[in-house]
Sequence to fold (197 residues):
Amino acid sequence: MDSPLHLQARMALCRPEHMVLDLFVQSLRESIAQRMGRNLARAAGAPIASVPVRGAPSHRSAREYLELLHEGASTVEQTLGEDYSHAVEQLSFTAASHVFSAPVGAMVMAITGEDPHRGLSVGSGLAGATSTFGEREYERVSDTTARVRFKDEFFGPAWCSGLVRSGLLQTNPERRFRVELETGEPPFKDFSLLIHW
Fold:
């Protein structure tokens, strides 16, 4: 679903105006540290930024996020012998659980409730508040299947799969969700995912 070349190609498309909430960067650092079982600063390779004044949301470069994701996935691949795409998905899955347990994430979970369709619909709509790039469009396919289309999405399908599964499992821990890449061409900036449960 993803590779170092695909991720680096998307990274090259990032511009200074492409930003993501700092919360995502912090959560990715925690995910890398947790996955590698090491000290957070050592595993993530960078100091933790200070908390923004008065809790105002701050943003970081999408390119910086992708560089950290690539370093983390490469380290997991080399150290633990996992496939790169799987490493990206697992880092995203763990990082997303940190995001969803933060106050803003908990609020989103409370709004969406246990209905996976509502969660995917609301999540797709709120994604624009977390980044300055990309378009996400939710579609109900059946009672137990949904489609999410991504356009100009720099994080790619493996990352999005991890995020989607993590979010859905937050409110439905007893359910089994399967996410598959339905359409997309390398470097997977535009693609669609099918989610089944």
Remarks:
- The chain has one domain: 4-11+18-37+59-196.
